[in-house]
Structures are given as structure tokens and as C-alpha cells.
């Protein structure tokens, strides 16, 4: 059975999708744009600030499901410009520790709302 995960601490879904779906011990998040749920806008600054906000949104969704970033096993990072990879990576490294999740990072032509980054994750809830 699949369960929808939703929190007001991350941007609301603006279409026919869930912030995340949990199936058994697995959590699949939708791609998170760098929208601050308090303001509905992107944070001031550039790729570092946008990466941080996307990851904070993911963290909030996982916490709603009873999980943490430590339980993330796979991430996918979508970048509007692969030239932003190093700066994105420096912020990304602040959120994850060894063993790091598997990751794909791809450049895309455009992202919704003109975002510089969008991130999605898959997590496995660890028995506590």
C-alpha cells in the first residue's frame, strides 16, 4: 500500500502529485524546487542558496515520514547549468555524511519557475 507524505514545512504540490510517497520502508520524494514554504519564493542568492533550500524541503518531508537524511540511499540532482555543479556540490556535502547516497546529477534545458536546481531522493527507513 502506498501512503502520501505531506508537510506544510515544504512547498505544497502544485499539480497532480504528492510531496512524497511511502511504500513499506521506502520513501520516494518528488523533485523539490528551492521554494521557501514560508514565502513561496526562491531564496535570495544563487545556486548555493537554492541547493540549500531544496535540501531543507527534502529534510522536512523525510522528517514528516519519520526518516532522516541519513536514510537517503539515492539522490537525483537536476541542474539548469552544469557549470553550477561545484557550488551545488559544496552545499550538498553539508547535508550528507559517509556512506554517501548514490547520486546522479544531470543538466536539463530548463526547470520549473526558472529554478537553478531541483532535487529528489529515495530513502529507506531504518529500524530504530
Characterise the protein shown here.
The protein has 128 residues and is of the alpha+beta class. Helices cover 23% and strands 27% of the residues. It is built from two helices and six strands; from the N terminus they run βββαβαββ. It has helices at 47-64, 85-95; strands at 2-5, 20-23, 26-29, 72-79, 102-107, 117-124. Helix 1 packs parallel to helix 2. The two termini are 22 Å apart.
Keywords:
six-stranded mixed β-sheet, globular, 2 helices, 23% helix, alpha+beta, 128 residues, 6 strands
Secondary-structure topology with pairs:
Blueprint: E1 2-5, E2 20-23, E3 26-29, H1 47-64, E4 72-79, H2 85-95, E5 102-107, E6 117-124
Parallel strand pairs: 4-5
Antiparallel strand pairs: 1-2, 2-3, 3-6, 4-6
Helix content: 10-25%
Shape verdict: globular
Radius of gyration: 14 Å
Residue share in β-strands: 25-35%
Q: Could you give the distance between the termini?
A: 22 Å
The count of β-strands is 6
Elements, N to C (H/E): EEEHEHEE
Structural class: alpha+beta
Mean pLDDT equals: 96
Q: What is the number of helical segments per DSSP (H or I, 4+ residues)?
A: 2
Spans of 5+ residues with little confidence (pLDDT < 50)?
Answer: none
Main sheet attributes: strand count, strand direction, barrel closure: 6 strands, mixed
Strand ordering within the main sheet: 1-2-3-6-4-5
Amino acid at each position: 500500500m502506498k501512503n502520501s507524505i505531506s508537510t506544510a514545512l515544504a512547498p505544497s504540490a502544485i499539480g497532480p502529485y504528492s510531496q512524497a510517497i511511502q511504500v513499506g520502508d521506502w520513501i520516494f520524494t518528488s523533485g523539490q524546487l528551492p521554494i521557501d514554504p514560508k514565502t513561496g519564493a526562491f531564496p535570495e542568492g544563487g545556486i548555493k542558496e537554492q541547493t540549500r533550500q531544496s535540501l531543507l524541503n527534502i529534510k522536512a518531508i523525510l522528517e514528516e515520514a519519520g526518516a532522516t537524511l541519513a536514510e537517503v540511499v539515492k539522490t537525483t540532482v537536476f541542474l539548469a547549468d552544469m557549470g553550477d555543479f561545484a557550488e551545488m556540490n559544496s552545499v550538498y556535502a553539508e547535508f550528507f555524511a559517509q556512506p554517501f547516497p548514490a547520486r546522479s546529477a544531470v543538466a536539463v534545458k530548463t526547470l520549473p519557475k526558472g529554478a537553478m536546481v531541483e532535487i529528489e531522493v529515495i530513502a529507506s527507513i531504518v529500524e530504530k
